[in-house]
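Action item from last week, closing it out:
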Amino acid sequence: MNNLEFNYSTCAKEPQRPPLASPFREEWFNADALINAYQTGKKHFTSEVLAMIKTHLFTTFEASKTLKTTNFEELSVRFLRSYVKIEGISTYQILTLVDKTSFISDDFRNVYLTAQNIENSVEEKEDILLTFSFAPFTDKLNEEMIKANGFFQIAA
């Protein structure tokens, strides 16, 4: 026999192990019961997520309303339309269209500061990540593209 050859006949065979016992015994669970439990859990989870999103949307709408009223009274900035986008269960983006003259004014920096304060306040209180974005309103603005990007308009 060559030194490089391996003799399989001298190897000890691994003993056969008994199959693992299933934790689901036939008399405890059957396929219909497992499917029913899955569907019930899925319905329960879906209703919890929807309730959470409704609560978060309400908070988001209130934050948008707070921003509009605060800065409108102090700076006479004209907010025209607002859109919201749900990016995750607790992540929301608000896009606000502003009058072009208001957008390019020096006072508009205060709008950004107020928006940042509202974002921080909402994140601390509600654990919601809220982001404000602003854009000037022009006649050439394609609002269908805004909606195609996942935003929907907030009622004024």
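Closing note: The longest helix spans residues 31-75.
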